[in-house]
Amino acid sequence: MKLKLTIKNKLVQSGIKASLSKLVKNKIAKYALHVRKVDIHVDDVPSTLHGTFKECKINMLLPGLPTVVVKARGKNILHAIQRALKSLQHVLVQKYQFSQLRP
What pLDDT was estimated at residue 26? Predict the structure, then answer.
């Protein structure tokens, strides 16, 4: 599984980037045999009422199946990534019947 993490408009320390990649790998670990590549893109999204949000877009490439794309917004980078990963897990279980991989 290849992981690519891109964060725009924010300087992120290497320790934070490493912990975010560890979080992603832990959440997707049970699907690791079926995943070729995961692209995570975090960007700032302006809001008129609440300032700026972070939007996380996850593209997951599965062999022989269409690419799964999930978007989620959050207050900060961690919150956005966690919400997107939760949505991604829900889509994988519901759409592609990976429920037999659950422990």
Answer: 87
